[in-house]
Write a structure and sequence with these properties.
CATH topology: TIM Barrel
Shape: globular
Largest sheet: 6 strands, parallel
Order of helices and strands: HEHHHEHEEHEHHHEHEHEHEHHEH
Radius of gyration: 19 Å
Distance between the termini: 33 Å
Strand content: 5-15%
CATH architecture: Alpha-Beta Barrel
Number of domains: 1
Length: 364
Protein backbone atom coordinates (compact mmCIF):
# COMPACT_ATOMS: atom_id res chain seq x y z
CA UNK A 1 0.00 0.00 0.00
CA UNK A 2 1.26 3.49 -0.80
CA UNK A 3 1.83 5.87 2.11
CA UNK A 4 -0.95 8.22 1.04
CA UNK A 5 -3.36 5.31 0.76
CA UNK A 6 -2.50 4.02 4.22
CA UNK A 7 -2.85 7.51 5.71
CA UNK A 8 -6.33 7.82 4.19
CA UNK A 9 -7.37 4.30 5.19
CA UNK A 10 -6.16 4.81 8.75
CA UNK A 11 -7.95 8.15 9.15
CA UNK A 12 -11.18 6.67 7.83
CA UNK A 13 -10.82 3.63 10.11
CA UNK A 14 -10.36 5.85 13.15
CA UNK A 15 -13.42 7.93 12.17
CA UNK A 16 -11.42 11.09 11.63
CA UNK A 17 -13.00 13.84 9.58
CA UNK A 18 -12.23 13.52 5.85
CA UNK A 19 -13.07 15.57 2.79
CA UNK A 20 -13.46 12.47 0.65
CA UNK A 21 -14.64 8.89 0.91
CA UNK A 22 -12.00 6.20 0.23
CA UNK A 23 -12.59 3.27 -2.10
CA UNK A 24 -11.10 0.09 -0.60
CA UNK A 25 -11.44 -3.34 -2.19
CA UNK A 26 -10.31 -6.76 -0.99
CA UNK A 27 -8.43 -8.07 -4.04
CA UNK A 28 -7.01 -11.54 -3.49
CA UNK A 29 -6.48 -14.86 -5.22
CA UNK A 30 -10.08 -15.90 -5.89
CA UNK A 31 -10.14 -12.99 -8.38
CA UNK A 32 -6.62 -11.81 -9.11
CA UNK A 33 -5.11 -14.67 -11.18
CA UNK A 34 -8.19 -14.88 -13.37
CA UNK A 35 -8.17 -11.15 -14.01
CA UNK A 36 -4.52 -11.34 -15.07
CA UNK A 37 -4.99 -14.53 -17.09
CA UNK A 38 -2.48 -16.64 -15.15
CA UNK A 39 -2.84 -20.07 -13.48
CA UNK A 40 -3.52 -20.01 -9.76
CA UNK A 41 -0.61 -22.35 -9.10
CA UNK A 42 1.79 -19.91 -10.76
CA UNK A 43 0.46 -17.12 -8.57
CA UNK A 44 0.88 -19.16 -5.41
CA UNK A 45 4.21 -20.85 -6.07
CA UNK A 46 6.22 -18.55 -8.34
CA UNK A 47 7.52 -15.63 -6.21
CA UNK A 48 8.29 -13.46 -9.24
CA UNK A 49 4.84 -14.04 -10.69
CA UNK A 50 3.30 -13.22 -7.30
CA UNK A 51 5.25 -9.96 -7.04
CA UNK A 52 4.62 -8.92 -10.65
CA UNK A 53 0.91 -9.72 -10.34
CA UNK A 54 0.42 -7.65 -7.21
CA UNK A 55 2.42 -4.75 -8.63
CA UNK A 56 0.37 -4.80 -11.82
CA UNK A 57 -2.88 -4.70 -9.85
CA UNK A 58 -1.63 -1.80 -7.68
CA UNK A 59 -0.70 0.14 -10.82
CA UNK A 60 -3.77 -0.78 -12.87
CA UNK A 61 -6.10 0.30 -10.07
CA UNK A 62 -4.01 3.08 -8.58
CA UNK A 63 -7.12 4.92 -7.35
CA UNK A 64 -8.25 1.90 -5.32
CA UNK A 65 -6.92 1.12 -1.86
CA UNK A 66 -6.15 -2.55 -2.47
CA UNK A 67 -6.66 -4.28 0.85
CA UNK A 68 -4.86 -5.77 2.68
CA UNK A 69 -2.23 -5.21 -0.04
CA UNK A 70 0.73 -7.51 -0.80
CA UNK A 71 -1.05 -10.40 0.89
CA UNK A 72 0.98 -13.63 0.85
CA UNK A 73 -1.94 -16.06 0.78
CA UNK A 74 -2.88 -19.42 -0.63
CA UNK A 75 -6.62 -19.00 -0.81
CA UNK A 76 -7.91 -20.10 2.58
CA UNK A 77 -5.26 -22.77 2.98
CA UNK A 78 -2.73 -21.17 5.34
CA UNK A 79 -4.42 -21.63 8.72
CA UNK A 80 -5.96 -25.05 7.91
CA UNK A 81 -2.61 -26.36 6.66
CA UNK A 82 -0.92 -25.43 9.94
CA UNK A 83 -3.52 -27.24 12.07
CA UNK A 84 -3.45 -30.51 10.15
CA UNK A 85 -6.06 -30.18 7.39
CA UNK A 86 -5.55 -31.79 4.02
CA UNK A 87 -5.01 -29.22 1.24
CA UNK A 88 -5.63 -29.84 -2.46
CA UNK A 89 -4.41 -27.35 -5.09
CA UNK A 90 -6.08 -26.72 -8.44
CA UNK A 91 -4.91 -25.14 -11.68
CA UNK A 92 -7.61 -22.50 -12.06
CA UNK A 93 -9.12 -21.87 -8.64
CA UNK A 94 -8.01 -21.49 -5.01
CA UNK A 95 -7.15 -24.66 -3.07
CA UNK A 96 -9.65 -26.83 -1.26
CA UNK A 97 -9.41 -27.79 2.42
CA UNK A 98 -10.56 -31.02 4.05
CA UNK A 99 -11.12 -31.59 7.79
CA UNK A 100 -9.03 -34.16 9.63
CA UNK A 101 -10.14 -33.62 13.25
CA UNK A 102 -12.65 -36.45 13.17
CA UNK A 103 -12.92 -36.62 16.97
CA UNK A 104 -12.74 -33.61 19.28
CA UNK A 105 -10.95 -35.78 21.82
CA UNK A 106 -7.96 -35.88 19.44
CA UNK A 107 -7.21 -32.26 20.33
CA UNK A 108 -4.96 -33.59 23.09
CA UNK A 109 -2.68 -35.06 20.43
CA UNK A 110 -2.06 -31.72 18.74
CA UNK A 111 1.00 -29.63 19.57
CA UNK A 112 0.84 -25.83 19.56
CA UNK A 113 1.18 -24.26 16.12
CA UNK A 114 4.62 -22.97 15.18
CA UNK A 115 4.10 -20.41 12.38
CA UNK A 116 7.76 -20.56 11.39
CA UNK A 117 7.58 -24.28 10.66
CA UNK A 118 3.99 -25.45 10.20
CA UNK A 119 2.15 -25.68 6.90
CA UNK A 120 1.83 -22.72 4.56
CA UNK A 121 2.42 -20.31 7.42
CA UNK A 122 6.12 -21.01 6.99
CA UNK A 123 5.86 -20.53 3.22
CA UNK A 124 4.03 -17.21 3.59
CA UNK A 125 6.54 -15.91 6.13
CA UNK A 126 9.35 -16.80 3.73
CA UNK A 127 7.51 -14.93 0.96
CA UNK A 128 7.24 -11.82 3.13
CA UNK A 129 10.88 -12.03 4.19
CA UNK A 130 12.13 -12.50 0.64
CA UNK A 131 9.94 -9.84 -0.98
CA UNK A 132 9.59 -7.01 1.54
CA UNK A 133 12.65 -5.08 0.34
CA UNK A 134 11.51 -5.40 -3.25
CA UNK A 135 8.04 -4.15 -2.27
CA UNK A 136 9.56 -1.17 -0.45
CA UNK A 137 11.73 -0.29 -3.44
CA UNK A 138 8.61 -0.29 -5.64
CA UNK A 139 7.09 2.40 -3.41
CA UNK A 140 4.82 0.30 -1.21
CA UNK A 141 4.73 -1.12 2.32
CA UNK A 142 3.01 -4.11 3.92
CA UNK A 143 0.78 -2.51 6.53
CA UNK A 144 -1.44 -5.32 7.76
CA UNK A 145 -1.02 -8.81 9.21
CA UNK A 146 -3.88 -11.08 8.15
CA UNK A 147 -5.49 -14.28 9.46
CA UNK A 148 -8.64 -16.34 9.26
CA UNK A 149 -10.61 -16.15 12.49
CA UNK A 150 -11.17 -18.77 15.17
CA UNK A 151 -14.61 -20.06 14.12
CA UNK A 152 -13.46 -20.28 10.51
CA UNK A 153 -10.30 -22.18 11.45
CA UNK A 154 -12.19 -24.50 13.80
CA UNK A 155 -14.67 -25.26 11.01
CA UNK A 156 -11.82 -26.15 8.67
CA UNK A 157 -10.45 -28.57 11.25
CA UNK A 158 -13.73 -30.16 12.26
CA UNK A 159 -16.05 -29.70 9.30
CA UNK A 160 -18.80 -27.09 9.39
CA UNK A 161 -21.69 -29.50 9.97
CA UNK A 162 -19.87 -31.33 12.75
CA UNK A 163 -18.87 -28.09 14.42
CA UNK A 164 -22.44 -26.80 14.42
CA UNK A 165 -23.55 -30.02 16.13
CA UNK A 166 -20.65 -29.85 18.58
CA UNK A 167 -21.84 -26.47 19.85
CA UNK A 168 -24.81 -28.19 21.48
CA UNK A 169 -23.46 -31.70 21.97
CA UNK A 170 -20.05 -30.98 23.47
CA UNK A 171 -19.56 -27.34 24.54
CA UNK A 172 -16.50 -27.99 26.76
CA UNK A 173 -14.50 -29.51 23.93
CA UNK A 174 -15.62 -26.79 21.52
CA UNK A 175 -14.19 -24.24 23.95
CA UNK A 176 -10.99 -26.26 24.03
CA UNK A 177 -10.88 -26.22 20.21
CA UNK A 178 -11.58 -22.49 20.08
CA UNK A 179 -8.84 -21.78 22.62
CA UNK A 180 -6.39 -23.87 20.57
CA UNK A 181 -7.10 -22.09 17.28
CA UNK A 182 -7.21 -18.65 18.91
CA UNK A 183 -3.72 -19.11 20.31
CA UNK A 184 -2.55 -20.36 16.90
CA UNK A 185 -3.99 -17.28 15.18
CA UNK A 186 -2.33 -14.89 17.62
CA UNK A 187 1.00 -16.68 17.13
CA UNK A 188 0.54 -16.48 13.36
CA UNK A 189 -0.24 -12.76 13.40
CA UNK A 190 2.70 -12.01 15.69
CA UNK A 191 5.03 -13.99 13.43
CA UNK A 192 3.94 -11.89 10.45
CA UNK A 193 4.59 -8.71 12.41
CA UNK A 194 8.04 -9.93 13.40
CA UNK A 195 9.02 -10.94 9.85
CA UNK A 196 7.52 -7.97 8.01
CA UNK A 197 8.78 -5.43 10.52
CA UNK A 198 7.64 -2.09 11.84
CA UNK A 199 5.67 -1.14 8.73
CA UNK A 200 2.81 -3.24 10.15
CA UNK A 201 0.24 -1.09 11.92
CA UNK A 202 -2.88 -3.21 11.68
CA UNK A 203 -4.51 -6.63 11.61
CA UNK A 204 -7.20 -8.07 9.34
CA UNK A 205 -9.37 -10.95 10.60
CA UNK A 206 -11.70 -12.86 8.27
CA UNK A 207 -14.34 -15.12 9.81
CA UNK A 208 -17.53 -15.86 7.92
CA UNK A 209 -18.53 -18.84 10.06
CA UNK A 210 -19.52 -16.48 12.87
CA UNK A 211 -22.41 -15.47 10.61
CA UNK A 212 -23.91 -18.95 10.97
CA UNK A 213 -24.29 -18.70 14.75
CA UNK A 214 -27.25 -17.74 16.85
CA UNK A 215 -26.83 -14.81 19.21
CA UNK A 216 -26.42 -17.20 22.15
CA UNK A 217 -23.78 -19.30 20.41
CA UNK A 218 -22.03 -16.18 19.15
CA UNK A 219 -21.81 -14.81 22.71
CA UNK A 220 -20.39 -18.06 24.07
CA UNK A 221 -18.22 -19.46 21.29
CA UNK A 222 -17.16 -16.53 19.10
CA UNK A 223 -17.16 -13.16 20.83
CA UNK A 224 -14.64 -13.90 23.60
CA UNK A 225 -12.15 -15.51 21.20
CA UNK A 226 -12.41 -12.76 18.60
CA UNK A 227 -11.97 -10.18 21.34
CA UNK A 228 -8.89 -12.01 22.62
CA UNK A 229 -7.33 -11.68 19.17
CA UNK A 230 -8.13 -7.99 18.73
CA UNK A 231 -6.99 -7.22 22.30
CA UNK A 232 -3.64 -8.94 21.68
CA UNK A 233 -2.44 -6.05 19.50
CA UNK A 234 -1.85 -2.36 20.19
CA UNK A 235 -4.93 -0.24 20.76
CA UNK A 236 -3.90 2.38 18.20
CA UNK A 237 -3.46 -0.15 15.38
CA UNK A 238 -6.06 -0.37 12.62
CA UNK A 239 -8.15 -3.50 13.13
CA UNK A 240 -10.44 -4.77 10.39
CA UNK A 241 -13.04 -7.53 10.63
CA UNK A 242 -14.51 -9.20 7.54
CA UNK A 243 -17.65 -11.33 7.71
CA UNK A 244 -19.78 -11.58 4.60
CA UNK A 245 -21.12 -14.96 5.78
CA UNK A 246 -20.13 -16.60 2.50
CA UNK A 247 -20.25 -20.28 3.40
CA UNK A 248 -19.47 -21.54 -0.10
CA UNK A 249 -16.00 -22.88 0.86
CA UNK A 250 -17.70 -25.13 3.44
CA UNK A 251 -21.07 -26.02 1.91
CA UNK A 252 -22.36 -26.57 -1.59
CA UNK A 253 -24.93 -23.77 -1.37
CA UNK A 254 -25.31 -20.18 -0.21
CA UNK A 255 -27.72 -19.08 2.50
CA UNK A 256 -28.83 -15.89 4.17
CA UNK A 257 -26.49 -16.20 7.14
CA UNK A 258 -25.22 -12.87 8.38
CA UNK A 259 -24.22 -10.88 11.44
CA UNK A 260 -27.66 -9.36 12.08
CA UNK A 261 -28.36 -11.20 15.37
CA UNK A 262 -25.33 -9.71 17.11
CA UNK A 263 -24.53 -6.46 15.31
CA UNK A 264 -24.58 -4.49 18.56
CA UNK A 265 -22.08 -6.91 20.11
CA UNK A 266 -19.65 -6.56 17.20
CA UNK A 267 -19.08 -2.90 18.03
CA UNK A 268 -17.61 -3.94 21.41
CA UNK A 269 -14.98 -6.32 19.99
CA UNK A 270 -12.34 -3.63 19.65
CA UNK A 271 -11.98 -3.46 15.87
CA UNK A 272 -12.25 -0.30 13.76
CA UNK A 273 -13.60 -1.40 10.36
CA UNK A 274 -16.38 -3.83 9.44
CA UNK A 275 -16.69 -5.38 5.98
CA UNK A 276 -19.96 -7.32 5.80
CA UNK A 277 -22.55 -8.82 3.48
CA UNK A 278 -24.66 -6.78 1.08
CA UNK A 279 -27.68 -8.55 2.61
CA UNK A 280 -27.69 -6.05 5.48
CA UNK A 281 -28.52 -2.44 4.63
CA UNK A 282 -25.73 -0.01 5.46
CA UNK A 283 -28.10 2.40 7.19
CA UNK A 284 -29.30 -0.36 9.52
CA UNK A 285 -25.73 -1.41 10.28
CA UNK A 286 -24.81 2.20 11.06
CA UNK A 287 -27.81 2.58 13.36
CA UNK A 288 -27.27 -0.67 15.24
CA UNK A 289 -23.53 -0.20 15.71
CA UNK A 290 -24.08 3.35 16.93
CA UNK A 291 -21.60 4.91 14.53
CA UNK A 292 -18.76 3.44 16.59
CA UNK A 293 -17.02 1.66 13.71
CA UNK A 294 -16.12 2.52 10.14
CA UNK A 295 -18.27 0.68 7.62
CA UNK A 296 -16.45 -0.79 4.61
CA UNK A 297 -19.20 -1.71 2.20
CA UNK A 298 -21.39 -2.83 0.72
CA UNK A 299 -22.26 -3.12 -2.96
CA UNK A 300 -23.40 -6.68 -3.76
CA UNK A 301 -20.24 -8.45 -4.99
CA UNK A 302 -21.88 -11.06 -7.23
CA UNK A 303 -25.31 -9.83 -8.30
CA UNK A 304 -24.06 -6.31 -8.98
CA UNK A 305 -20.26 -6.25 -8.86
CA UNK A 306 -19.69 -9.26 -11.10
CA UNK A 307 -22.93 -9.77 -13.02
CA UNK A 308 -24.20 -6.19 -13.23
CA UNK A 309 -23.49 -3.52 -15.80
CA UNK A 310 -21.15 -0.61 -15.02
CA UNK A 311 -24.19 1.65 -14.75
CA UNK A 312 -25.81 -0.71 -12.24
CA UNK A 313 -22.59 -0.77 -10.22
CA UNK A 314 -22.37 3.02 -10.26
CA UNK A 315 -26.01 3.39 -9.17
CA UNK A 316 -25.62 0.87 -6.35
CA UNK A 317 -22.40 2.49 -5.11
CA UNK A 318 -23.94 5.97 -5.02
CA UNK A 319 -26.94 4.51 -3.20
CA UNK A 320 -24.69 3.06 -0.49
CA UNK A 321 -22.86 6.35 0.00
CA UNK A 322 -25.97 8.51 0.05
CA UNK A 323 -27.62 6.38 2.73
CA UNK A 324 -24.92 7.33 5.25
CA UNK A 325 -23.97 10.72 3.88
CA UNK A 326 -20.38 9.71 3.21
CA UNK A 327 -19.25 9.83 6.84
CA UNK A 328 -17.68 6.90 8.68
CA UNK A 329 -17.62 4.81 5.52
CA UNK A 330 -15.26 3.41 2.91
CA UNK A 331 -16.92 2.38 -0.31
CA UNK A 332 -16.38 -1.31 -0.99
CA UNK A 333 -18.15 -4.49 -1.95
CA UNK A 334 -20.07 -6.58 0.54
CA UNK A 335 -17.08 -8.95 0.61
CA UNK A 336 -14.07 -9.35 -1.63
CA UNK A 337 -13.80 -8.86 -5.38
CA UNK A 338 -15.45 -12.01 -6.76
CA UNK A 339 -14.00 -14.20 -9.52
CA UNK A 340 -14.90 -12.78 -12.91
CA UNK A 341 -15.61 -9.21 -11.80
CA UNK A 342 -14.74 -7.17 -14.90
CA UNK A 343 -12.44 -4.18 -14.94
CA UNK A 344 -15.25 -1.98 -16.21
CA UNK A 345 -17.22 -2.57 -13.02
CA UNK A 346 -14.24 -1.71 -10.83
CA UNK A 347 -13.83 1.47 -12.84
CA UNK A 348 -17.53 2.17 -12.23
CA UNK A 349 -16.86 2.05 -8.47
CA UNK A 350 -14.02 4.52 -8.96
CA UNK A 351 -16.25 6.83 -10.98
CA UNK A 352 -19.04 6.60 -8.40
CA UNK A 353 -16.86 7.52 -5.45
CA UNK A 354 -15.24 10.35 -7.40
CA UNK A 355 -18.68 11.72 -8.33
CA UNK A 356 -19.81 11.49 -4.72
CA UNK A 357 -16.64 13.17 -3.48
CA UNK A 358 -17.08 16.06 -5.92
CA UNK A 359 -20.47 16.63 -4.34
CA UNK A 360 -18.89 16.74 -0.89
CA UNK A 361 -16.41 19.38 -2.03
CA UNK A 362 -19.05 21.69 -3.52
CA UNK A 363 -21.78 21.00 -0.98
CA UNK A 364 -22.91 23.35 1.83
Amino acid sequence: MRQDQWDLFKKAAKLERLDRVPLALIMDSPWLPGHLGIPHRDYYFDPDRWFDSNLKIMQEFAKVIVFPSWWAEYGMAIEPSAVGCKIRFHQDQPPSQFPTLFHLEDLDRLSPVDPYADGFMAAALHRYQAQKTRILEAGYKIRVATARGPACTAAFMRGIGELMLDLSDNPPLVHKLMAFVTEAIIRWLRAQVEVIGDSVEGIFILDDIVGLLSKRHYSEFAHPYLKQIFDAFPRDWVKVYHNDANVAPFLDYHNDANVAPFLEDLSTLGFDVLNWSHNLDIAEVRRRTGGKICLMGNVAPLETGTRGTPQEVRTAALGVLRKVGGSGVMLSLGGGVSPGMPKANIMALIEAVEEFNRGLLVGP
